Amino acid sequence: MPVLVSYVCQRKCKPSRAERRHNDPEPKKREYFERFDLGKLQEIEAKPIPYWYPQGFSMQGFSRYQRDALYYYGIKEVADLFTKRNLWALVHCG
Description:
Elements: E1 4-8, E2 17-21, H1 27-46, H2 64-72, H3 84-93
Antiparallel strand pairs: 1-2
């Protein structure tokens, strides 16, 4: 769960670079964090990734100990090492 967003204003804002936190003391920033930043993450999680990315690649390159340790955390293939947001960004830029 993200707790901080660093952003750059595209317009003539002062300051042009700022941050929002989940527990920001400014109510407006806290509201924007909850509505827009967390809202965008929920939107990404709800949609399928529209780009091709490698699926079904096993962890056979890892040692048995590493595979078992990763499996314990629900990682069964290489794509499981990334969050959906990370996968979306990687395949969109690649």
